[in-house]
Amino acid sequence: MRLVPRGPVGPALSLLVPLFSVLLAFAASLLLLALFGTSPREAAVAVYQGLFTDLRGFSELLRRAVPLVLAGAGLALAFRAQFWNIGAEGQLLLGAVAAAGVALFSGIEGGWLLPAMALAAFLAGGLWALLAAVLKARLEVNDVITTLMLNYVAVYLVEWLIHGPWKGKTAFGFAYTDRFPEAASLPLFPGTALAWPGVVLAVLLAGFFAWLLFATTFGFEVRVLGENPEAARYAGVRATVTLSLVALFSGGAAGLAGFVEVAGTHHKLLSPLQISLGYGYTAIIVAWLARNHPLLAVLTGLLIGFVFAAGDVLKVALMVPFQLVEVVNGLVLFFLIAGEVFLRYRVVFGGRRG
Amino acid sequence: MRKVWIAVLAVLGALAFGQQELKAGWLYVGPIGDYGWTHAHDVGRREAAAAFPWLKTIYVENVPEGQAGSYIDQMVRQGVKVIFATSFGYMDAVLEAAKRYPDVIFAHATGFKRAPNVATYMADFYQVFYLNGLMAGALTKTGKVGYVAAFPIPELKRHINAFTLGVRAANPKAKVLVRWIYEWYNPAAAKEATEALIAEGADVFAFTEDSPTVVQVAAEKGFPSFSHYSPMLKFAPDHVVSGQLVHWGVIYKDFLAKVYAGLYTPKNLEDVDYWWLLPQGAVELGADFGVPINPKFAGRLKAKAVNHPIFGEINVYDLVMKLHGLMKDVELAFDPFQGPIKDRRGILRVPEGLRLTKHQLETMEWAVEGVVGPWPNEPKK
Amino acid sequence: MVEDWLVATLARGLAFAAPLLFAALGELVAERSGVINLGVEGMMILGALMAFVVADASASPWLGVLAAAGVGALAALLHAFFAVTLRANQYVSGLALTMVGLGLSGLFGRAYAGKPLAHPLPKWDVPLLKELPWIGPGVFEGQSALLYLGLLLALGLSVFLHQTRPGIHLRSVGENPAAADALGVNVYLVRYLAVVFGGAMAGVAGAYLSVAYRPSWTEGMTAGMGWIALAIVIFAAWEPLRAVLAAFLFGAFYHLAYRFQGVLPPEFLKMTPYLFTILFLVLSALGKSVRLGAPEALGRPYVRGER
After folding, report:
1. Which of the following CATH numbers is that of domain B2-113+248-276: 3.40.50.1580, 3.40.50.2300, 1.10.238.10, 3.40.109.10?
2. For C131, which DSSP code?
3. Which tens digits make up the pLDDT trace of A203-246?
4. Which chain B residue lies closest to C143 (C-alpha atoms)?
5. Which residue of C88, C275, C277 is in closest CB contact with A145?
6. CA-based nearest distance B301→chain A, Å
7. A182 pairs with which residues across the strands?
8. Identical fold at B2-113+248-276 and B126-245+283-372?
């Protein structure tokens, strides 16, 4: 068996293939569930009833998707510039830290508190990414490594804050900060646990990034820089400035995801593993599936959000072991990347040499 | 006696409700395979399910704090009427859900906030820790006992204090060296913390972490240890002296039987707070069920004599057995936190002749004399 | 006093380093061939379970280690198929492998929770060498047999990569696969072998945890070590002998976090190796003296006839 490159593909095919692989992945997942004694019919019905028959269920899907879309749209922008930002997880955590800091210690009250938290989160996440971008632009330090390492630094920074200086007086010795004041809570959509401003923010930001990327000179520079750095230099693109701005936006978007998580769900700073359920890492997949198109990240974020939320439903409704849900999630990813392959290549069976 | 009472309740319930089914759900913080906290709760759930034919149970493992509310929604959707939330971190989510579902009964383990439909429950070890401390004090040769601890929260501080009081009752000069790992479950961290304590001269070990790591590491070096939470005697049959065991099933059966009988309703739980100790059988002394002291250590414990204020000259083995008997009795003729007790800064914390209230036990932040090592949030006054 | 500290830090640092070393050496070889595998954590945990199950059933811990290598290799084969044959996105495939590994091990490991292992791996003293001052008791006394094998493996791999023909082929495949292909090296085969070797070593690393470091099985017992191994490869600049040093540093800082507790927040000590990695990269970029870089073709699939 060998693969022959396809060349450019039409829009119909580039839409059909991923759709087909998603369907195939779901079919395979149901088959796996069946192997472990869960009837596929029951599973499908449970997911339908759990997520699509009332507002509360559906809102959980959105609640899972919001941080993925925010961070994913930012990563799509970064990847366009060949800024290999693997650090959305850390940038998200820094955003959560900054938002918590403003909520607890700034003394700002009333209606200005939430915007101040969001701004702080955006800046903190952005600056965390900027560090790696500057090192890359100025010293050619590998950005995959620095952003990945900075994730761990962020994790321990949060750990230190909640065990040490920021530990709450009302936390009973547990590793939490105090609860944020009321004014620091994002409003919830009535009857759900969904902080609706997060949804608005995610869609607006994805749109803004898409506009930036495809309708502005800056976006043109970003794309040239990503596709052909040599040409970019001749064309007078200032690599350091462009890359820095990209990092600021990309990290900032992840920072906002951290803001939405603490202001919408947790209302305090807590263990990094609880703040983010791996959203920063999953967002890489979201951006990749979206072919680094910020607006498409809304769709792919929803898709992955659905996979997670469906797993949550199955765990409770049919007592599917959570490990099986994890296996299913991994399987879905395998199918998606396999599908991607068939988009780029034709499979030819037989003779090795062509 | 208790078993009879539960059986009567169950029959009454059956009469009152006909053959109606009751569905209960558990939120677990870790995987059942942790062989610690979550494992023990699941054993309790299975006991309850086996005891009551009218009971249907479901559970979810690995529930992150931010998802607790959503899992509760899913459970209620499945017709669950009683929800047990088994981690402190679920407190806010439980209280919010309780408002959302006023007809559902919630029980929150280790929490302190209640509502008309939210009860709290806890099976506490502090008495057992005192007894383990006595044995540890008798067994240490270096005078240094190592303690690997999860989080510096009042629960653990209470346990370490009780343990240290026991150690010092058997060996007034001994010290308890404490290391925090800031995790409930992390075998690697527990191992390195134990090794650090060994490097500092500790030769007997106790711990609060959800794996048999400390027991295994100590045994490798030939040091005695006290197991935690699940039976760990089999991990080092020659080196585990005793330990603390939990029976959540006792609480679950009592609670569910009362719900079924209509004694507990979603309107009257504001004051229902289980604080169950040795007398209720919610906890047990031992490294395995029915083995309070490993017979292999009986000789060494009997060889160590102490001068006890009540019993006079007595060996540690007999002392443990006597006090164990007293603490298992509801009369509570003995309590580890019996005044006078000073903290390690010299401040009198329990005056002569007094004991601590449950609230004082639950909010304990100070360290008794003999505790060595970092102690976050230690009060200065 | 100083001697006690030194010996304990050496001994503990190495004991903690052993699983990191195996996993890192395996990943290092895979990455040298140009394939990155983020599935280390998943392969490691599968190895841990497999080793425990086999050692428990056969009463032979070494058979357990072997079985762990086998299951790790098998898992890596899946990744190799996606990364090499299908030329799929390596990052996503590795992440998926981790998810599948963690899930499967939890699913099949339930029956083994809370079971002691009757025959764990032996500890060895190295004759003669253990008489050395400081280094003797720190390195050559009472460590697991696997640690010594890991140290030998690092030495062997270093020689292999730099002194032997197959080793040079491996490196050339990772640096410039087209050129290697032109010279008659079978790029696909080399990559398959390297990735599968990486998986086998990750399996052994897992086995160390469940039959030597802490002989028992608990779900999720790798607790993120697979990710640390990935960091170590980078820190080691893809050099096997530097991987020994890097793994030791991670182990030593982990141990010292508990020795210094009360003096220094443990989080800072645990953060240090990661900061070191960045600092190291910056310094070598400033100095330009040390050529520190990933294999040129890392993460990029090779397509014959495409440049």
Report:
1. 3.40.50.2300
2. G
3. 999 999 999 999 999 999 999 998 888 888 887 888 899 999 99
4. B220
5. C277
6. 35
7. none
8. yes
